[in-house]
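task queued by scheduler; priority normal; single chain, no ligands, no partner chains; default sampling; output format set to structure tokens
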Amino acid sequence: MYKEEEEREERGKKRERERERERERERERERERREGRRERERERERREEREEEREERGEERREREEREGERRERREREREKERERREREERRERNLRSEEEREKERTEREDEEERGKERDPA
């Protein structure tokens, strides 16, 4: 009887040790799950940060391209205005030369007519 009781106690202790080992394994699995979750969470945060940085760079790039486009358009408008100004100036100069040439031709004709009258007074 004493031996049976000892064996029963031994089996009880053995079961208790087995349960304790199982609890320890469960705690270890839970710790690994938590660490895995934490690691996954950290990785997710890193991914989000990288994505935000890419978006910011993309936004900055779009803004920069927009500013460059505006500058290009402004330069193009300025070049167009300058070209139009030069064309007006050239037309004005041509018109002045034409007017001067017509005036010169007119005075030459008048001078020629005047000389003709002097030669042929009748």
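post-processing summary
- Helices lie at 2-119.
- The mean pLDDT is 90.
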